[in-house]
Amino acid sequence: MEKSQLINLIGIPEARLKATLAEWGIAPYRALQVLNWIYNYQVERFDEMTNLSKDLRGRLARHYYVELPKIAEQTFSKDGTIKYLFDLANGSQVESVWMPDKKRNTLCISTQVGCRLACSFCLTGTLGLKGNLSTAEIIGQYMAVNRELPKVDQITNIVFMGMGEPLDNYQPVCEALRLMTSPRAMRISNRRITLSTAGLVDKIEQFKNENLPVNLAISLNATEDSTRNEIMPINKKYPIRVLLDCLRSYPLKPTRRITFEYVLLKGINDTPGDAKRLAKLLHGIPSKINLIPFNGFAESDYQAPAEAAILAFQKYLLSKNYSVFIRKNRGTDILGACGQLAARSFKETSVTVSS
Ligand code: SAH
Predict the structure, then answer these.
(1) For residue 168, which atom of ligand 1 is closest to its CA?
(2) CATH (domain of 25)
(3) Residue owning the nearest CA to atom 19 of ligand 1
(4) Residue 250: which domain range?
């Protein structure tokens, strides 16, 4: 059979795999064995799945193939961060960033090629939306990077903070989260996964009912609608008040908190008044605040505030008893930091334009 008629087994929901095997008259536990081979032993060839009958292996091979996105390029930062460029099957490219730390190794993964939200401080936003990643391409970034890394460097945490708006690619992202956290598939703890969103309120409402208790991060980035409208156009549809009201009823497990990300832009959202308003806005929401000093890129005029202003912003929020962290910029020398991901498609265009 032509490969085009086969289906990539990576990313297939458990229930669908079980249903297909049931149609073939195969017991459900066989589906679990297949998942175990794929996600725990990282076996990609059906003839290596030795606890399955020859007959079933043949049948699987006539129906499915196993394929991860291909790593086209790795770029190494001075601080240990590695940026991976992936070739997807349809010819587009996305990036993931691996960041080692003392106790954890975090992979920042992409969910879309480009992004339609056009936040003014984000390089990915300048691309517009070029496409959505499939479930296989989302979890495949994790699998492909882990396959490449030595054992001591294996990924411990995943953040959905790469290219794209995860909740704008809703179904594939939810299916990816389900496979990641399933004890029968990838077995990653909910606590080690963070989904970050610019605040698509209708999708957050829907997500409340998915029973996917991963960490939720909200890119707030401003304390007044006038400012947020300007830097995050999605705010015109879902203003700050509406977003925060939706979060007040978010089904958090005890001891868990919502993370608020706040990109600090000099002269735009970094005043003492902003710090005060932020403390008021988040009142009553179990929260943790990550301050991210702006990471620059050639096409942007924004600047990060001076260190003293960043520390003063943090200090005020600490005095109001918030947990506030200043996020270290990782991989800035390789355009691997927050808001700097754009893959080659963009760079090529910009080269053409400027030459
Ligand atoms: N679309 C999702 C996930 C991708 S952005 C979201 O908005 O949450 C991940 C984080 O990077 C967001 O919090 C965003 O505010 C931040 N970010 C984007 N561009 C940045 C830049 N140039 N400097 C610092 N942080 C940036």
Answers:
(1) 1
(2) 1.10.150.530
(3) 339
(4) 70-349
